[in-house]
Inverse folding.
Protein backbone atom coordinates (compact mmCIF):
# COMPACT_ATOMS: atom_id res chain seq x y z
CA UNK A 1 0.00 0.00 0.00
CA UNK A 2 2.92 2.29 0.83
CA UNK A 3 4.42 1.84 -2.66
CA UNK A 4 1.07 2.48 -4.26
CA UNK A 5 0.48 5.75 -2.43
CA UNK A 6 4.07 6.90 -3.18
CA UNK A 7 3.42 6.26 -6.85
CA UNK A 8 0.21 8.27 -6.65
CA UNK A 9 2.15 11.21 -5.22
CA UNK A 10 4.70 10.90 -8.08
CA UNK A 11 1.84 11.06 -10.50
CA UNK A 12 0.61 14.29 -8.92
CA UNK A 13 4.05 15.76 -9.72
CA UNK A 14 3.66 15.23 -13.44
CA UNK A 15 4.11 18.64 -14.98
CA UNK A 16 4.89 19.94 -18.45
CA UNK A 17 8.61 19.49 -17.81
CA UNK A 18 7.91 15.75 -17.97
CA UNK A 19 7.32 16.25 -21.69
CA UNK A 20 10.81 17.64 -22.33
CA UNK A 21 13.68 15.78 -24.01
CA UNK A 22 16.57 17.89 -22.81
CA UNK A 23 19.80 15.86 -22.75
CA UNK A 24 18.35 13.12 -24.96
CA UNK A 25 19.60 12.10 -28.40
CA UNK A 26 17.30 10.93 -31.17
CA UNK A 27 17.85 9.28 -34.56
CA UNK A 28 14.98 9.72 -37.04
CA UNK A 29 15.25 7.77 -40.31
CA UNK A 30 13.85 9.16 -43.56
CA UNK A 31 13.66 12.58 -41.91
CA UNK A 32 14.67 14.67 -44.92
CA UNK A 33 11.05 15.58 -45.70
CA UNK A 34 7.42 14.75 -44.95
CA UNK A 35 6.47 13.02 -41.72
CA UNK A 36 10.07 12.38 -40.64
CA UNK A 37 11.00 16.04 -40.98
CA UNK A 38 8.01 16.94 -38.78
CA UNK A 39 9.13 14.42 -36.16
CA UNK A 40 12.71 15.76 -36.19
CA UNK A 41 11.48 19.34 -35.73
CA UNK A 42 9.26 18.47 -32.76
CA UNK A 43 11.91 16.36 -30.98
CA UNK A 44 14.50 19.13 -31.42
CA UNK A 45 12.05 21.79 -30.20
CA UNK A 46 11.58 19.65 -27.07
CA UNK A 47 15.34 19.75 -26.42
CA UNK A 48 16.69 16.56 -28.01
CA UNK A 49 19.80 16.50 -30.20
CA UNK A 50 18.50 14.98 -33.41
CA UNK A 51 20.41 12.90 -35.97
CA UNK A 52 18.54 13.50 -39.22
CA UNK A 53 18.86 10.50 -41.54
CA UNK A 54 17.82 10.37 -45.18
CA UNK A 55 18.89 8.66 -48.35
CA UNK A 56 19.43 12.12 -49.86
CA UNK A 57 22.11 14.19 -48.09
CA UNK A 58 20.65 17.47 -49.40
CA UNK A 59 17.28 16.71 -47.79
CA UNK A 60 18.88 15.85 -44.45
CA UNK A 61 21.03 19.01 -44.64
CA UNK A 62 18.04 21.26 -45.26
CA UNK A 63 16.13 19.86 -42.27
CA UNK A 64 19.24 20.30 -40.09
CA UNK A 65 19.59 23.90 -41.29
CA UNK A 66 15.94 24.62 -40.43
CA UNK A 67 16.28 23.06 -36.95
CA UNK A 68 19.54 24.78 -36.07
CA UNK A 69 18.21 28.05 -37.54
CA UNK A 70 15.35 27.80 -35.04
CA UNK A 71 17.82 27.28 -32.18
CA UNK A 72 17.66 23.47 -31.98
CA UNK A 73 20.45 20.89 -32.15
CA UNK A 74 20.67 18.55 -35.14
CA UNK A 75 23.21 16.81 -37.36
CA UNK A 76 22.77 15.28 -40.80
CA UNK A 77 23.38 11.51 -41.06
CA UNK A 78 22.64 10.49 -44.62
CA UNK A 79 22.74 6.77 -45.38
CA UNK A 80 20.62 4.07 -46.94
CA UNK A 81 18.89 2.19 -44.11
CA UNK A 82 18.41 -0.84 -46.39
CA UNK A 83 22.17 -1.24 -46.83
CA UNK A 84 22.71 -4.19 -44.52
CA UNK A 85 26.51 -4.05 -44.59
CA UNK A 86 26.69 -0.25 -44.31
CA UNK A 87 24.26 0.24 -41.42
CA UNK A 88 26.60 -0.69 -38.57
CA UNK A 89 29.29 1.65 -39.89
CA UNK A 90 26.73 4.44 -40.42
CA UNK A 91 25.40 4.01 -36.89
CA UNK A 92 28.96 4.15 -35.52
CA UNK A 93 29.25 7.55 -37.26
CA UNK A 94 25.95 8.61 -35.68
CA UNK A 95 27.32 7.63 -32.25
CA UNK A 96 30.48 9.69 -32.92
CA UNK A 97 28.32 12.70 -33.71
CA UNK A 98 25.64 12.54 -31.01
CA UNK A 99 26.63 9.77 -28.57
CA UNK A 100 24.33 6.87 -27.67
CA UNK A 101 20.97 6.95 -29.44
CA UNK A 102 18.37 7.29 -26.65
CA UNK A 103 15.42 7.54 -29.04
CA UNK A 104 15.16 5.64 -32.32
CA UNK A 105 12.32 6.53 -34.68
CA UNK A 106 12.26 4.30 -37.76
CA UNK A 107 10.19 6.43 -40.12
CA UNK A 108 11.69 5.63 -43.55
CA UNK A 109 9.05 3.36 -45.04
CA UNK A 110 8.16 4.57 -48.50
CA UNK A 111 10.76 3.61 -51.11
CA UNK A 112 12.56 6.41 -52.91
CA UNK A 113 10.33 7.54 -55.76
CA UNK A 114 7.17 6.44 -53.94
CA UNK A 115 7.21 2.69 -54.64
CA UNK A 116 4.92 1.10 -57.19
CA UNK A 117 1.43 0.15 -56.06
CA UNK A 118 0.82 -3.28 -57.57
CA UNK A 119 -1.91 -5.86 -57.27
CA UNK A 120 -0.32 -8.90 -55.65
CA UNK A 121 -1.03 -11.03 -58.70
CA UNK A 122 1.08 -8.70 -60.87
CA UNK A 123 3.76 -7.89 -58.30
CA UNK A 124 7.41 -8.65 -59.10
CA UNK A 125 9.27 -10.28 -56.21
CA UNK A 126 11.69 -7.33 -56.23
CA UNK A 127 8.84 -5.07 -54.98
CA UNK A 128 8.13 -7.50 -52.15
CA UNK A 129 11.82 -7.56 -51.20
CA UNK A 130 12.05 -3.77 -51.28
CA UNK A 131 9.16 -3.36 -48.82
CA UNK A 132 10.50 -6.04 -46.47
CA UNK A 133 14.01 -4.52 -46.60
CA UNK A 134 12.84 -0.98 -45.85
CA UNK A 135 10.05 -1.58 -43.35
CA UNK A 136 11.16 -4.71 -41.55
CA UNK A 137 14.82 -5.70 -42.07
CA UNK A 138 16.09 -2.10 -41.75
CA UNK A 139 14.11 -1.62 -38.56
CA UNK A 140 15.45 -4.89 -37.15
CA UNK A 141 19.06 -3.88 -37.87
CA UNK A 142 18.63 -0.38 -36.43
CA UNK A 143 17.10 -1.71 -33.25
CA UNK A 144 19.79 -4.37 -32.87
CA UNK A 145 22.45 -1.67 -33.17
CA UNK A 146 21.07 0.80 -30.62
CA UNK A 147 19.38 -1.52 -28.14
CA UNK A 148 22.45 -2.88 -26.27
CA UNK A 149 23.48 0.65 -25.17
CA UNK A 150 19.90 1.62 -24.31
CA UNK A 151 19.69 -1.44 -22.07
CA UNK A 152 23.07 -0.66 -20.48
CA UNK A 153 21.94 2.92 -19.89
CA UNK A 154 18.64 1.73 -18.41
CA UNK A 155 16.65 4.07 -20.65
CA UNK A 156 15.55 4.02 -24.27
CA UNK A 157 12.65 4.61 -26.62
CA UNK A 158 11.95 2.84 -29.90
CA UNK A 159 9.16 4.07 -32.16
CA UNK A 160 8.24 2.41 -35.44
CA UNK A 161 6.18 4.37 -37.94
CA UNK A 162 3.60 1.99 -39.32
CA UNK A 163 0.41 2.40 -41.32
CA UNK A 164 -3.28 1.56 -41.24
CA UNK A 165 -2.43 -0.68 -44.21
CA UNK A 166 -0.99 -3.17 -41.67
CA UNK A 167 -4.41 -4.02 -40.26
CA UNK A 168 -6.86 -2.96 -42.98
CA UNK A 169 -7.15 -4.55 -46.43
CA UNK A 170 -7.11 -1.85 -49.11
CA UNK A 171 -7.83 -2.21 -52.85
CA UNK A 172 -4.90 0.01 -53.89
CA UNK A 173 -2.07 -2.46 -54.51
CA UNK A 174 -0.20 -2.07 -51.24
CA UNK A 175 -0.23 -5.68 -50.00
CA UNK A 176 3.56 -6.01 -49.70
CA UNK A 177 3.78 -2.68 -47.88
CA UNK A 178 0.96 -3.70 -45.52
CA UNK A 179 2.56 -7.08 -44.84
CA UNK A 180 5.94 -5.49 -44.04
CA UNK A 181 4.34 -2.91 -41.73
CA UNK A 182 2.34 -5.67 -39.99
CA UNK A 183 5.60 -7.57 -39.42
CA UNK A 184 7.19 -4.49 -37.87
CA UNK A 185 4.24 -4.12 -35.48
CA UNK A 186 4.67 -7.77 -34.44
CA UNK A 187 8.32 -7.18 -33.60
CA UNK A 188 7.45 -4.03 -31.62
CA UNK A 189 5.04 -5.94 -29.36
CA UNK A 190 7.73 -8.50 -28.50
CA UNK A 191 10.46 -5.88 -28.11
CA UNK A 192 8.39 -3.88 -25.65
CA UNK A 193 7.83 -6.94 -23.48
CA UNK A 194 11.50 -8.01 -23.63
CA UNK A 195 12.97 -4.55 -23.05
CA UNK A 196 10.48 -2.94 -20.68
CA UNK A 197 12.27 -4.36 -17.62
CA UNK A 198 15.42 -2.51 -18.76
CA UNK A 199 13.75 0.90 -19.00
CA UNK A 200 13.33 0.69 -22.77
CA UNK A 201 9.87 1.03 -24.33
CA UNK A 202 8.90 0.10 -27.90
CA UNK A 203 5.75 1.26 -29.65
CA UNK A 204 4.38 1.70 -33.16
CA UNK A 205 2.25 4.49 -34.57
CA UNK A 206 -0.04 3.31 -37.37
CA UNK A 207 -0.65 6.43 -39.45
CA UNK A 208 -3.67 7.24 -41.54
CA UNK A 209 -3.57 9.50 -44.56
CA UNK A 210 -1.08 12.32 -44.29
CA UNK A 211 -0.75 15.69 -45.99
CA UNK A 212 1.37 15.69 -49.12
CA UNK A 213 -0.53 12.94 -50.93
CA UNK A 214 -1.99 15.34 -53.45
CA UNK A 215 -3.61 18.73 -53.95
CA UNK A 216 -6.27 19.62 -51.39
CA UNK A 217 -8.75 20.44 -54.19
CA UNK A 218 -8.21 17.09 -55.95
CA UNK A 219 -11.51 15.12 -55.83
CA UNK A 220 -9.59 11.93 -54.92
CA UNK A 221 -8.02 13.66 -51.91
CA UNK A 222 -11.38 15.13 -50.92
CA UNK A 223 -12.92 11.65 -51.05
CA UNK A 224 -10.20 10.39 -48.71
CA UNK A 225 -10.80 13.28 -46.32
CA UNK A 226 -14.52 12.40 -46.19
CA UNK A 227 -13.51 9.17 -44.45
CA UNK A 228 -11.65 11.09 -41.72
CA UNK A 229 -14.09 12.29 -39.05
CA UNK A 230 -11.89 15.22 -37.98
CA UNK A 231 -12.07 16.46 -41.58
CA UNK A 232 -8.38 16.78 -42.37
CA UNK A 233 -5.25 14.82 -43.24
CA UNK A 234 -2.55 14.24 -40.64
CA UNK A 235 0.68 16.24 -40.52
CA UNK A 236 4.26 15.62 -39.48
CA UNK A 237 3.63 17.88 -36.49
CA UNK A 238 0.73 15.59 -35.40
CA UNK A 239 3.06 12.59 -35.53
CA UNK A 240 5.86 14.51 -33.79
CA UNK A 241 3.51 15.43 -30.93
CA UNK A 242 2.54 11.77 -30.42
CA UNK A 243 6.19 10.73 -30.48
CA UNK A 244 7.11 13.44 -28.00
CA UNK A 245 4.57 11.95 -25.60
CA UNK A 246 5.83 8.39 -26.14
CA UNK A 247 9.49 9.40 -25.75
CA UNK A 248 9.21 11.73 -22.77
CA UNK A 249 9.06 10.64 -19.13
CA UNK A 250 5.33 11.34 -19.27
CA UNK A 251 4.84 8.51 -21.79
CA UNK A 252 6.78 5.89 -19.84
CA UNK A 253 3.71 3.75 -19.17
CA UNK A 254 3.00 3.26 -22.87
CA UNK A 255 4.81 0.15 -24.06
CA UNK A 256 4.44 -2.64 -26.64
CA UNK A 257 1.48 -0.88 -28.27
CA UNK A 258 0.33 -0.07 -31.77
CA UNK A 259 -1.46 3.28 -31.63
CA UNK A 260 -3.57 4.42 -34.58
CA UNK A 261 -3.09 8.06 -35.51
CA UNK A 262 -5.69 8.67 -38.18
CA UNK A 263 -8.36 11.10 -36.93
CA UNK A 264 -10.73 8.16 -36.43
CA UNK A 265 -10.68 7.14 -40.11
CA UNK A 266 -13.62 5.09 -41.30
CA UNK A 267 -12.38 2.99 -44.22
CA UNK A 268 -14.52 2.70 -47.32
CA UNK A 269 -16.67 5.77 -46.68
N1 LIG B 1 2.13 9.69 -46.31
C1 LIG B 1 1.12 8.96 -45.83
O1 LIG B 1 -0.07 9.19 -46.12
C2 LIG B 1 1.43 7.82 -44.87
C3 LIG B 1 0.38 7.02 -44.41
C4 LIG B 1 0.65 5.99 -43.52
C5 LIG B 1 1.97 5.75 -43.11
N2 LIG B 1 2.98 6.53 -43.60
C6 LIG B 1 4.35 6.22 -43.16
O2 LIG B 1 4.99 7.41 -42.73
C7 LIG B 1 6.39 7.31 -42.99
C8 LIG B 1 6.88 8.55 -43.72
O3 LIG B 1 6.14 8.69 -44.92
P1 LIG B 1 6.20 10.05 -45.78
O4 LIG B 1 4.88 10.17 -46.45
O5 LIG B 1 6.70 11.18 -44.98
O6 LIG B 1 7.31 9.62 -46.88
P2 LIG B 1 8.15 10.54 -47.88
O7 LIG B 1 8.38 9.72 -49.11
O8 LIG B 1 7.53 11.90 -48.04
O9 LIG B 1 9.54 10.76 -47.11
C9 LIG B 1 10.31 9.67 -46.74
C10 LIG B 1 11.79 10.02 -46.73
O10 LIG B 1 12.46 8.77 -46.50
C11 LIG B 1 13.62 8.75 -47.29
N3 LIG B 1 14.03 7.36 -47.57
C12 LIG B 1 13.45 6.49 -48.43
N4 LIG B 1 14.16 5.35 -48.46
C13 LIG B 1 15.19 5.50 -47.60
C14 LIG B 1 16.27 4.67 -47.22
N5 LIG B 1 16.43 3.46 -47.75
N6 LIG B 1 17.17 5.13 -46.30
C15 LIG B 1 17.03 6.38 -45.77
N7 LIG B 1 16.01 7.22 -46.12
C16 LIG B 1 15.11 6.79 -47.02
C17 LIG B 1 13.24 9.47 -48.58
O11 LIG B 1 14.40 9.96 -49.26
C18 LIG B 1 12.31 10.58 -48.07
O12 LIG B 1 13.00 11.80 -47.87
C19 LIG B 1 6.60 6.00 -43.75
O13 LIG B 1 7.01 4.98 -42.86
C20 LIG B 1 5.22 5.69 -44.29
O14 LIG B 1 5.04 4.30 -44.51
C21 LIG B 1 2.75 7.56 -44.46
Amino acid sequence: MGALSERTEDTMDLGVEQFGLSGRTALVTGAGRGVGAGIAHVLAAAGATVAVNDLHAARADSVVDAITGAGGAAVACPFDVTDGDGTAEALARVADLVGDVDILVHNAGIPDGGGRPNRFVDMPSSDWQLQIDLNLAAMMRMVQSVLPRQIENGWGRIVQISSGASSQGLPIGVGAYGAAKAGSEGLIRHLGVECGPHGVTANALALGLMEGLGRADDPAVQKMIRGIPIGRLGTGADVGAAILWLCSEAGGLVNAQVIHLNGGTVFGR
User: Anything to note?
Assistant: The beta strands are 25-28, 49-52, 73-76, 103-106, 156-163, 200-207, 258-261. Residues 29-30, 32-36, 53-56, 59, 80-82, 107-112, 134, 161, 163, 207, 209-210, 212-213 surround nicotinamide-adenine-dinucleotide (CB under 6 Å). The longest helix spans residues 125-153. The first strand starts at residue 25 and ends at 28.
